[in-house]
């Protein structure tokens, strides 16, 4: 006897409703801090010299500046103000009042209730076009880096093969050899030291040029080096929400929200840095210099450098034979001779690597800040290539290599574009952008409610939930920044989300015209519309991914919002709408509903 089974339609398991409810609740809590907005604030880092918050408050009050609140935690004090004007006035006053070692940073503090912030939620970060500030586009000149590496080849051959003569020809290096013994020695040297170079031996002439892969690697390392330097220097400006990103092959885009003085930013970005190696005396004398390392421990170093950073050609992190992290360093011929002579006479003695940063103070005078970044023991005689061990983890080794390259590679950086956006213009952009979003949302809600009547209200609920989910998802996503093009992506998302419900409702109408019951029409309508909805969202998502991959800045902001909007519209338009319709009409097959 054949057994017939009946599928229960328009019913969702309870756990699915629970998942939907929990998801909407999390998205709502994530979006709420953005509704409360942010307050202008100052972050004061006292660097071991804390100042009583009461004294700071009194000093500001005497200048007719009244903070909304002051919170002190250890060496850090956070002050919140009514507006950006008081924030800027307070920063100028406190910079003159506090010691030079104290950092007074512009910041924005969430205005949301403390319980919401303690739960891990925070408002959406606003981009430069919405908050105001300064943007720089810098270009890294790679030719001096390539030239330094070509000169390293000439120096290396000159030291290994005494009779050779080298010269640069366009982008290549030509080495002239005098006998077969030199040719044999050159082949050995090429295999051991210059395997990553494209080389050719014709008669007694060796031609070397950087391979394309090595050029890409050098360019990547050099841009990373500059990114590392810029991030550290921007910290001196006291900007907590600065954005430093690579753009294209050899460009860097820097966005400084809240900064309205490009000249001050240029002084910090254009500061110079250097690196040197110093001996570490066993005992402290009147001539020794006491400096702090990265952990705050004092180190006594000889003030006279063994070797300056201009002799370093390259530095890369690697793994030693023992499986520990190390940094491999390459010096030019002059640096190799100096290091060889010193290390031969100081085997078993420590050697410190000193990082020097030069910048300008508020008076425009140059000042130097030195830090010991590594202390290593010389285990054998060193030459133009040696390694530093005992540097900690692989990440520590990579950071050290970046610092070594930062003090050595000659990679000039030029500011090719500079833009300043006033805070009033940023506020106007926010108002106009969200006004357009509100207008588009209101018109769409009204049209859907009138056209689809009762089921139109389901679409409106899904559309409002979509906006909540989109705001919540942007706030949750690390590194996501809302820009003016991002708001345009939100407006576009409104249309995309409604289109999902329109397709579903039209399919339901078609099924009812075929004579099916309303419950059957709901079931068949959702199933038949899903493939069209999925295809449309997939093709648009491909475009969003392409925009994010190829574009930069505002284009990426638009792509992020568009891509997240597609995900939230699919979630609310299909799954949430189905759940609501199932609860209201889906189970009753006898009720006639006009849609």
How would you sum up this structure, described in words?
The protein is an alpha+beta fold and 595 residues long. The chain is built from 15 helices and 23 strands. The chain has helices spanning 14-36, 53-62, 84-97, 114-118, 128-131, 143-160, 180-193, 212-237, 262-269, 333-345, 394-406, 423-476, 484-513, 518-550, 554-586; strands spanning 38-45, 69-73, 76-80, 103-110, 125-126, 133-140, 165-169, 172-176, 197-202, 205-210, 243-247, 251-257, 273-279, 289-292, 298-301, 307-308, 312-319, 325-331, 350-360, 366-377, 385-389, 413-421, 481-482. A hairpin with a 2-residue loop joins β2 and β3.
**What is the percentage of strand-forming residues?**
15-25%
Largest sheet: 4 strands, antiparallel
| Number of contiguous helices | 15
Number of strand elements: 23
Morphology:
globular
Strand order of the largest sheet: 2-3-1-4
Radius of gyration, whole Å: 32 Å
Distance between the termini: 42 Å
In round numbers, the mean pLDDT is 77
> How much helix is in the residues?
40-55%
- Sequence stretches where pLDDT stays below 50 over 5 or more residues: 1-6, 589-594
The quaternary organization reads as: single chain
Which class do the helix and strand fractions yield?
A: alpha+beta
In short:
The chain is built from 15 helices and 23 strands. The protein is of the alpha+beta class and 595 residues long.
Q: Top keywords for this entry?
A:
alpha+beta, four-stranded antiparallel β-sheet, 23 strands, 24% strand, globular
Topology record:
Elements: H1 14-36, E1 38-45, H2 53-62, E2 69-73, E3 76-80, H3 84-97, E4 103-110, H4 114-118, E5 125-126, H5 128-131, E6 133-140, H6 143-160, E7 165-169, E8 172-176, H7 180-193, E9 197-202, E10 205-210, H8 212-237, E11 243-247, E12 251-257, H9 262-269, E13 273-279, E14 289-292, E15 298-301, E16 307-308, E17 312-319, E18 325-331, H10 333-345, E19 350-360, E20 366-377, E21 385-389, H11 394-406, E22 413-421, H12 423-476, E23 481-482, H13 484-513, H14 518-550, H15 554-586
Parallel strand pairs: 5-23
Antiparallel strand pairs: 1-3, 1-4, 2-3, 6-12, 6-22, 7-8, 8-10, 9-10, 11-12, 13-16, 13-19, 14-15, 17-18, 18-21, 19-20
